């Protein structure tokens, strides 16, 4: 049996996570633990990995984690649950007693277990319907979660958290409690595998809109065309559904594969009540400790709102203690981007309704005479190490905003408060 890797490494923020080199599947499974995969997501610097090998119905599993926000809650603990991405499910194997803490405060550790699976549990594992979960004192519902997926040589693992707030336009009247999530595996063969779920739509899935759920081309802040139609296994009421891996394996063109890696793809679920899309999620790294987003509007400027036709948005992935990757866009500024003001777009410290200092300038790839632009990952263009812990804290606590400055509105034409993807 393959030896397990015990040392945890923080994934590189500039690219989707790459699975370790192994023979194609061969009974091996992997999971990247993140707050981004929690349902609902949570803000954390924590990271972790899970490696497993299935020998008929015996599962050998090893895990490691660091950087938790608070100690493991031993009254709840560490488990394997049954449930597909985007849904919570019951505990099937408690693992707290098999964990060896490497920090006195129970915020880091490793563990190993040998588990006997039923035939149904083997089928669930192969179908991407088991997940590993760490529960802490600050987040008793779970701080780090990892979908267990086949560990295939060269595969890349991405995830989307589906929420009403990410819809564009957003669902802001509070009537929808819909939520969901998905895991997207990019195989070296060029195929992709999508697994996940959604629930609590305010009305039935709009199946007449090309099946009702899709992968669209578009970076955060933009709407774009449907590229892949997803097949849902619908509940009887039509308000919830699953994307089963067996039904959602596709071979898109190379342009779409690159767009996935560049964070230029989003998943949208359309309901009869909100045909434009009730829940949406940008496809980001499955290993992002936390994922944040914002939509950018002139009305959010402080102290005075700006009347403008410009709009935009940004996604921010936090990896471990202090690495962030920023992607997004803005369009239709009234005048060109004010690049003389520290490149013209920034992350600022500041609560909603208040102004604060810049802590990270953002690099923009502009067009249309500087009135349109994108924050891209190409050549690590918007991957940063944030030097001050206080700045990371501001991101985790909702006290960061994105500001885009134009030559007409030097104090800012577009602004958006960065919030957890919930």
Q: Could you describe the 3D structure shown?
A:
This protein is mainly beta. Mean pLDDT is 91; it is low at 1-23. The strands form 6 sheets. Strands 1, 12, 13, 14, 17, 18, 19 and 22 form an 8-stranded antiparallel sheet that branches. Strands 23, 24, 25, 28, 29, 30 and 33 form a 7-stranded antiparallel sheet that branches. It is built from 3 helices and 33 strands.
Summarize the structure.
With 422 residues, the chain is mostly beta strands.
Summarize the amount of helix as a percent range: under 10%
Largest sheet: 8 strands, antiparallel
In oligomeric terms, what are we looking at? single chain
Strand percent estimate: 35-45%
The total of helices stands at 3
Topology:
Blueprint: E1 17-18, E2 28-33, E3 47-55, E4 58-66, E5 78-82, E6 91-94, E7 99-101, E8 109-116, H1 119-126, E9 130-134, E10 144-147, E11 149-150, E12 156-163, E13 179-186, E14 192-199, E15 213-217, E16 226-229, E17 233-234, E18 241-243, E19 249-250, H2 254-261, E20 265-269, E21 279-282, E22 284-285, E23 290-296, E24 311-319, E25 323-331, E26 345-349, E27 358-361, E28 365-367, E29 372-375, E30 383-385, H3 389-396, E31 400-404, E32 414-417, E33 419-420
Antiparallel strand pairs: 1-12, 2-3, 2-11, 3-4, 4-8, 5-6, 5-9, 7-8, 9-10, 12-13, 12-22, 13-14, 14-18, 14-19, 15-16, 15-20, 17-18, 20-21, 23-24, 23-33, 24-25, 25-29, 25-30, 26-27, 26-31, 28-29, 31-32
């Amino acid at each position: 049996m393959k030896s397990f890797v015990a040392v945890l490494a923080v994934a590189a923020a500039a690219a989707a996570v790459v699975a370790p080199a192994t023979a194609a599947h061969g009974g091996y499974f992997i999971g990247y633990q993140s707050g981004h995969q929690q349902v609902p997501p949570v803000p954390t610097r924590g990271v972790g990995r899970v490696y497993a090998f299935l020998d008929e119905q015996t599962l050998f599993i090893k895990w490691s984690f660091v950087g938790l926000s608070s100690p493991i809650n031993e009254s709840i603990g560490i488990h394997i649950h049954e449930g597909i991405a985007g849904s919570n499910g019951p505990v099937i194997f408690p693992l707290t007693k098999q964990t060896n803490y490497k920090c006195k405060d129970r915020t880091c550790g490793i563990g190993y277990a040998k588990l006997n699976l039923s035939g149904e549990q083997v089928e669930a594992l192969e179908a991407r319907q088991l997940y590993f979960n760490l529960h802490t004192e600050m987040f008793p519902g779970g701080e780090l979660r990892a979908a267990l997926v086949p560990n295939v040589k060269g595969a890349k693992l991405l995830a989307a958290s589906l929420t009403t707030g990410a819809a564009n336009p957003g669902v802001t009247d509070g009537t929808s409690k819909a939520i969901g999530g998905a895991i997207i595996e990019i195989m070296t063969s060029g195929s992709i595998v999508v697994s996940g779920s959604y629930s609590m739509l305010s009305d039935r899935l709009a199946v007449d809109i090309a099946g009702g759920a899709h992968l669209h081309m578009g970076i955060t802040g933009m709407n774009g065309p449907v590229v892949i139609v997803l097949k849902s296994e619908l509940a009887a009421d039509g308000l919830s559904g699953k994307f089963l891996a067996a039904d959602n394996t596709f071979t898109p063109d190379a342009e779409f594969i690159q767009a996935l890696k560049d964070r230029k793809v989003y998943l949208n679920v359309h309901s009869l009540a909100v045909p434009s899309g009730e829940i949406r999620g940008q496809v980001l790294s499955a290993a992002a400790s936390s994922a944040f987003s914002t939509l950018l509007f002139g009305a959010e400027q402080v102290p005075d709102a700006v009347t403008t036709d410009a709009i935009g948005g940004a996604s921010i992935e936090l990896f471990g203690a202090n690495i962030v990757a920023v992607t997004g866009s803005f369009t239709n500024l009234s005048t060109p981007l004010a690049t003389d003001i520290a490149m013209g777009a920034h992350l600022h410290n500041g609560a909603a309704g208040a102004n604060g200092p810049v802590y990270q300038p953002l690099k923009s790839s502009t067009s249309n005479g500087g009135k349109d632009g994108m924050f891209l990952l190409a050549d690590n263009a918007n991957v940063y190490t944030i030097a001050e812990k206080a700045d990371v804290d501001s991101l985790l606590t909702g006290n960061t905003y994105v500001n885009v400055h134009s030559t007409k509105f030097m104090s800012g034409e577009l602004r958006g408060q960065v919030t957890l993807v919930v």
